[in-house]
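Q: Could you fold this chain for me?
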Amino acid sequence: MRRFGMGRKRLICTVFLMTVAFFTLSGLAIAAGGGGESKGWLNTDTYRVMNFSVLAIALFFVLKKPVSQALNARIEGIRDQLSELEAKKAEAEKLLAEYNEKLAKLDEEAEKIVQEYIRQGEEAKAKIIEAAGSAAVKLEEQAKRNIAHEFKQAKAQLQAEVMEKALGKAEEIIKEKISADDQDKLVDEYLDKVVV
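A: Sure. Below is the predicted structure, expressed as structure tokens.
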């Protein structure tokens, strides 16, 4: 900061000296070339240089403050712009850090979502297996009942057929072995039972 202030003073002094030198040399050149006649250095030339010097010094002191203020205002403007840019840079770095953090959290969040879907899939799988198991048990019980019912029907039908054949066979045997006397005797016994 001080270096810049020293450089600015040097710059102002250098500009001032160059201006004085320019006007002095131009005044000398005009005085020396006065229409082809060489008159040399005149008193008026000295007064001209003195007037110019006084004017230049007066201009220096008059313009010193506004030029200094203008340069200071420009320096302040640049300083403000730099501080504003630094603030924007800090804000951008903060936003970048926030976005990086959000991105990291986004990866974590995606992992959580995937894990949640896996968990839900496992639960659904377990429910489906459980439902299939209970359905299989119900189907097995129904099949057992159907088999038992069919077995009872087949047994009853078989018993009926066996009974019918046994009765038919017994009838045949009785017909073969019973005589007419036995038939009369059986009829008499039956009538005795019915009449009594």
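A (continued): Helices lie at 2-32, 43-177, 180-195.
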